[in-house]
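User: Here's a chain of 138 residues. Predict its fold as tokens.
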Amino acid sequence: MPDMTKFNELMRKYVNEDYNTLVGLAKTSVNVLMPVCKQIDADNDGFLVLMSIVLAGVAADGVLTGKEKKFLQDVLGLSSDSVDKLISMYTGNMTELTDKIADAGNDDLKFAIVNLVASICACDETIKREEAAFIYKI
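Assistant: Prediction complete.
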């Protein structure tokens, strides 16, 4: 577990990043995560596993803001309707799956998951306590 002071500083860095930088960070993490997601979920080309991680990040505070929705559209190249359909697929098991993938992975995989989730959470210019707790747990 990271030192809380360092963790809080890292979260502030995400919050202070501009929107386009966060989109770039998230896209980079998606590219790192996809090969692992494909290994876990070959039948769906890794998409469902990746969406589990994304949706666990979105659901960390229980609220989907308009900025978070637009962020997902920009990062994943999806329409507004497609994002709505994805959001409706969320189950609590996705959070558990995200934790298990992070626990089983190496440091690079954990960093990619933290980077993706923190970018999603920070895109609305704040990381709420519930979001920070989820990221810290990863």
